[in-house]
Amino acid sequence: MEHKIEGNISHLTGVFMRGKCFPSIFFSTKSCKEVKDRYGQAEDGLYYLTTSTGVVYQTFCDMTTAGGGWTLVASVHEDNIYGKCTVGDRWTSQQGNNANWPKGEGNWANRKTFGTVEAATDDDFKNPGYYDIDAEDMSVWHVPNKTPFYHWNLAAIMRYHTERRFLHLYGGNLYYLFHRYPVEYNVGAHLSDNGPSIPIVYDLGDKESTKMFYGPNTRGETEGGFISFRAINLERAATAICSGVKPKGGEVDAYCIGGGGFFPQGNPLQCGDFTSFAWNGYGTNVGWSASKQMLESAVLLFYR
Amino acid sequence: MEHKIEGNISHLTGVFMRGKCFPSIFFSTKSCKEVKDRYGQAEDGLYYLTTSTGVVYQTFCDMTTAGGGWTLVASVHEDNIYGKCTVGDRWTSQQGNNANWPKGEGNWANRKTFGTVEAATDDDFKNPGYYDIDAEDMSVWHVPNKTPFYHWNLAAIMRYHTERRFLHLYGGNLYYLFHRYPVEYNVGAHLSDNGPSIPIVYDLGDKESTKMFYGPNTRGETEGGFISFRAINLERAATAICSGVKPKGGEVDAYCIGGGGFFPQGNPLQCGDFTSFAWNGYGTNVGWSASKQMLESAVLLFYR
Amino acid sequence: MEHKIEGNISHLTGVFMRGKCFPSIFFSTKSCKEVKDRYGQAEDGLYYLTTSTGVVYQTFCDMTTAGGGWTLVASVHEDNIYGKCTVGDRWTSQQGNNANWPKGEGNWANRKTFGTVEAATDDDFKNPGYYDIDAEDMSVWHVPNKTPFYHWNLAAIMRYHTERRFLHLYGGNLYYLFHRYPVEYNVGAHLSDNGPSIPIVYDLGDKESTKMFYGPNTRGETEGGFISFRAINLERAATAICSGVKPKGGEVDAYCIGGGGFFPQGNPLQCGDFTSFAWNGYGTNVGWSASKQMLESAVLLFYR
User: Fold this and answer.
1) B8 and chain C in contact, CB less than 8 A
2) How far is CA A204 from the centre of its chain?
3) What is the ipTM of this complex?
4) Is residue C4 assigned to a domain?
5) Is residue A109 part of a domain?
């Protein structure tokens, strides 16, 4: 098979979707938004991006939701709700529940990366876009574990995005937002020291269905239709993201994920990426327990 | 040094073995078999492959055994037989021996990847070929730990392959085979619910030498000359692969590797990538204990 | 944007620093020294290198210190001094303090790799250059945790290099040096069986400031102005590197980092990447305790 690669190659992009013969020419495209705007790529799929420092990585681009151009930067996956801050709990602590380690793994606010895009619903995922991309909005998909990427959109149990361009106020991405609002035990009190809550627009689901995913006991203290950041619980433990809701009380570990390294109540029962989502049994959706669907879905985080 | 890269580049392949100056042009070659068939590459070594979804990865191709074209997709490595389902036991559980986590890490049947080809005898290895390649047969090499890849063939203590094209019956690779036969505690009983046993052709070793690698107590319940999948033990714990043998009894944890997340007997003594290979002492080859050679070799898994 | 890539491309190198449009043409450049010598690259930053076996990786090149051409091959990072050989302690043991696992993770002398260059002060880092590059000298930077690479030089608390070309005597890199001097519990006695100590030239700091970084109790048994390898303590535990000092006693765990899998004294208090640097409190710099600066900086290792 002959390939002449001299000449005009301006039409080439970073698309490697079911690629046939292609030269691996990387343009310095930093985000899915850039790929869409510059090269008019309109198909959801895997793309190679390059950070401002030249690091190349592969991730998933949602090119269709609300104008497209959404870059998958992370996924929060619970591999074992019975493992309390064990191996795999990268978004809280992998060294147990420990007051001497209040920040835990610290992955909400560092440059560590882990996982792969194809395994983003099999395990945690975090790529350099998380800290490199200068973004305005976020979108979130809750996708059942072990779903291959080409089915994510179809299989998702909830999908939404922001339109307020809120990330401009917080440094342009979660790396900077969580520097301003550290995900750390004992840095503040519930409600008064919480991070921001941003209204969302639903792409699948609504305020009611969102609240139904979390335990009945949570519904009196949440308002649907938001994404909230760095919510603190009654015992001053920090969580990272409350997906689909705004907290109006202090039991945030029942509806917010990720966190620092220490959760005092019922030590260590709240410690882990999906915090206390099984407080009253696995997937029972009674008391504080989330539904089985919520418990068994990975939370995919996108920037635009 | 000048390089003109216009013109006919059909002779370029994915070979990066002791490469001098080369352009990194990736053809969408999915497997070592494809590299051999299409481009006539005849040398064992490291090659870059691309999955059907465009993920690029590097692995080892065995281009010489029985016609060549074998892709290394995984290695099972025991870093510490005394660590019972600790960090590093990716093919069973890294969260201890736990009846609440019957599937354990689940890496036999998910899209997670880990390790590198150069470290495949220093640590576990699993690349996207494991779930992406559509294969017919498997080959297995037992190679002493810490052997560099260019010595694997020479240093191996056992090598064999299948010729029955059995993977066609099970979805084309182990990802699909282990979906059909989950590596999970308590899904079935020993013998009656075991996965398939496939006859093998030896490239180094024979039925007798195979049985000698495992403990004397195992030899009455194994038949040499097979590779077996998802063998279950007396207490309903699942193992993943019995290398070189077919089980005819229920003490499979003494001659089969990998598994789910719970092994009831002697809790937690059977839990770990090399299960109970040191049941009667480290490398003693008495009672149920495997030989030191077997215990200290990584198990390399290939597809064609 | 048009790109003609036919013709003379000898001026292209592996520089991807704030890259605009560029083809990803990899030349088989093995080290930063080679990049500097062959292509005259004079800027510190991220570069892609290729091992002798064709493995491509990205790391940081220091092109300015003492003639430049230094390749970052590893970083030793302490994520939690209270975690005694827990997850993250890759340079000692992640399976606890265990006399049955005297070599621990073994990462000083194997081909495993982990981490990324951008996260080299957020977590441990080790790339294939560690075992692949044939080098003469080393340099070391102690850089505060969570510093982005473009600030490393500026933020470092200590920097030095060797000029003796000592690595020639030990196989050309640390992989070979640590094969000759295994980082393993119980292979020898303090002082008499220690590995080499090499005089250093300071780029930032001096012998006095070096000693001040470690606890007051250490200063009577160290001599500043050296880098030392495989120092053994009184209880026969092995450490890997004593940065900036030569041991003249047996309490090396208070000023040397990394190690094997077992440290008898105060079991498990000495076990971890920064060993017993907090023996008398966190960052107190009293007794045996190192200063807070030393405790909270990652140790970056370079070859030339």
Assistant:
1) no
2) 17
3) 0.91
4) no
5) yes
